[in-house]
Amino acid sequence: MTMFDRKRQSPRRTDEALRLVSVTKVYGSGDGAVTALDGVTLSLPTGSFTAVMGPSGSGKSTLLQCAAGLDRADQGQILVDGEEMGGGGEAARTRFRRERIGFIFQQYNLLPTLTVEENTSLPLRLAGRRTDPERVRAILTQVGLGERLRHLPDELSGGQRQRVAIARALVTRPAVVFADEPTGALDTRSARDVLGLLRETVRRHGTTVVLVTHDPVAASYADSVLFLADGRLAGHLAAPTAEAVAERMTHLGDVVAERHAHNSPLMEV
Ligand SMILES: Nc1ncnc2c1ncn2[C@@H]1O[C@H](COP(=O)(O)OP(=O)(O)O)[C@@H](O)[C@H]1O
Ligand SMILES: [Mg+2]
Fold this sequence. Notes:
Rossmann fold
């Protein structure tokens, strides 16, 4: 059981929100096998905001899906807030995910027949936890949707839908929130709003956020950037600016070509 801090009713956290040890994921088998993740080892402190970048097909989504328990890694260990995600059955992984992890999708994945308020409280109901209407409304107010509680998703703009999805991801006070291209379907202004909201959530509530993006501007909202190439970590950048991220991205292609030429492992982060 998670320990709860009585005053804030927040789960007590370890210092390390996420640890991956030699995580490998292969799709398919035989000649058609694709190694999407090739021995990824990383550690993210609690309260950090990390962007994951890399060329298309470099394994970003696979990394998030495995780390979030939406998919199963073939090898390696994944620890969330100090607890190992079992390699076991689907049901156990689902329970682990519902208790510890929030996920934000590019296409929002809201249920069209549920109101904003009902979509937001759904993870609590799925986890068999008490739905506290005041808390649900407080979170929706934080994301700027306090006046839209009874609206249905298709009565909202894209940016508003993504803010519902953020509220839904935060409602269980997860140890880590993963977001896969959360601004990919948004116009520039809504995208900035959503990224600013994620950054503010990290600052104000000590949430740990991992953001996959291919946009250097989006990555610059994070505290640090991890680069992936060919399913392996290929570098790290602290206090990223959009320019520095874009510059690194242009060199990732060279890194991959060189690795293929020498068949040598990359520097590890
Ligand atoms: N369900 C799948 N079946 C087979 N191959 C897949 C599947 N999902 C991803 N891949 C392959 O794994 C590699 C990594 O994909 P992905 O994690 O989606 O990369 P990214 O998100 O960085 O674009 C790619 O070569 C991709 O084609
Ligand atoms: Mg992807």
